[in-house]
Amino acid sequence: MESIWGKLKQEWLNGKHFRTRESAKRAIFWYIEVYYKNYRLHETNGYKTPREYVV
């Protein structure tokens, strides 16, 4: 099973530095709610996004 937290750290947060906790929260929210659900293709879903796979 793919770990969203591992992908988040590897793909999105690697090398990033945030000035505030709030800016880090916004970046994580954007990754999960926008990118991960709408754009990131998943091999186990037949190379569909989670949103496309559910529908």
A few lines on this structure:
The protein is an all-alpha fold and 55 residues long. 60% of the residues lie in helices and 0% in strands.
Please render the helix and strand layout as text.
Elements: H1 4-13, H2 21-38, H3 50-54
Helix pairs in contact: 1-2
Can you put this structure into words, describing what you see?
- The chain has a domain at 23-55.
- It is built from three helices and no strands.
- The protein has helices at 4-13, 21-38, 50-54.
- Helix 1 crosses helix 2.
- The chain starts with a helix and ends with a helix.
The end-to-end distance, rounded to whole angstroms, is 20 Å
Detail the poorly predicted runs: none
The proportion of strand residues reads: under 5%
- The global form is elongated
What does the radius of gyration come to? 12 Å
What is the number of helical segments per DSSP (H or I, 4+ residues)? 3
Helix content: 55-70%
Average residue pLDDT: 85
Count of strand segments:
0
Main sheet makeup: none
Order of helices and strands: HHH
Kindly name the structural category.
mainly alpha
Tags for this entry?
55 residues, 60% helix, elongated
